[in-house]
Amino acid sequence: MMRWNHAALLALTLLAVGCSSNSKKELPPAELTDIKEEVRLDKQWSRSVGDGQGDLYELLTPAVDGSTIYAAAAEGRVMAMQRESGDVLWKKDLDLPISGGVGVGGGLVLVGTLKGDVVALNAADGEQKWRTRVPSEVLSAPVTDGDVVVLQTQDDKLIALDASTGNQRWVYENTVPVLTLRGTGSPIIAGRMAIAGLASGKVVAVDLQRGLPAWETRVAVPQGRSELDRVVDIDGGLILDDNVIYVATYQGRAAALDLASGRVLWQREASSYAGVSEGMGNVYVSDASGTVESLDGRSSSSLWSNDALARRQLSAPAVFSSNVVVGDLEGYIHLLSQVDGRFVGREKVDGDGVRVRPLVVDKWMYVYGNSGKLVAYTIR
């Protein structure tokens, strides 16, 4: 079975852009132009978290639980910090290559590794509570409701572990396409269901206690002659808001699904490996080409589109106050107005780039750069 490495993901993105422009040469990232700064950010604190995303294009995203923010680095460091001051509460160096994280809940901090380990740490002091081996690498954050830990492996298995012991409760297996992007989104837990996006372009809901499917919905249909053309992974994760699931696939569609039944409420053509966000009743998509688009959350009609960040390898979008925020390969975060998509602010965070979605909690935004720089911002 063929597997994509991280460099291939970037190559695929550039290839898609190059083909669409009928050019034999890869086009460079769009140059940034001057903007009128309407929103200014105040940096509240900055901390270094090990080597950050490492050299394998991991997507390690911080997580907040109460007054604490947790972050992990690829070489094995996990840190807990007071989220408004940045004061380090504890630091744990695992002798493991972390590739999935961070999940928090029920007093646990959860990470997954390239070797297929799932590690649960005590949220209060960082001491290991349990460690369990699963069949393949874990490239996204495990999630928990305090009773069950659910994770998705690179080979598209959904696995449930007992939150107290790490013992396996069930496994839900899926058929993996011949060719996939390297990565998975994190599952979400909603009531009695665990919901995940798959490499096949499907979204599946599984009974949380028994591991039996509740519904399965195909969002994208693989098309084209080559396996490359037929890649329709859901790697950007799912967004749940008001009993509606929002999702986007690579080379496929963006869609809204009913939580209870999986019924498609709307869908439209889209291509994203980064993902979507939701705010003010709208859905925001970071397209694989570098376009940021706003869709009406009820009808999917396009409200605005900004293509000035073409080929800049954007992160998934986040909604911060009345702005949409994306990171890019040069380490900038860009603030776009939710109303019309114009640029209203820009900040350089990390010279190594920003590939993970900014984390927004209340009036705070946390940006985790590729080099391991974690920065907290508020709006001035």
TrEMBL record:
Domain Pyrrolo-quinoline quinone repeat: 75-306
SMART domains: PQQ
GO BP, sorted A to Z: Gram-negative-bacterium-type cell outer membrane assembly; protein insertion into membrane
Annotated keywords: Cell outer membrane, Lipoprotein, Membrane, Palmitate, Signal
InterPro entries membership: BamB, PQQ_b-propeller_rpt, PQQ_rpt_dom, Quinoprotein_ADH-like_sf, WD40/YVTN_repeat-like_dom_sf
Pfam families hit by this protein: PQQ_2
Xref: PROSITE patterns: PROKAR_LIPOPROTEIN
Cellular compartments annotated: Cell outer membrane
GO CC, alphabetical: cell outer membrane
Record membrane topology: Lipid-anchor
Function: Part of the outer membrane protein assembly complex, which is involved in assembly and insertion of beta-barrel proteins into the outer membrane.
Family listed: Belongs to the BamB family.
Quaternary structure annotation from Swiss-Prot or TrEMBL: Part of the Bam complex.
UniProt protein name: Outer membrane protein assembly factor BamB
Organism listed in the record: Pseudomonas knackmussii (strain DSM 6978 / CCUG 54928 / LMG 23759 / B13)
Source lineage: Bacteria, Pseudomonadati, Pseudomonadota, Gammaproteobacteria, Pseudomonadales
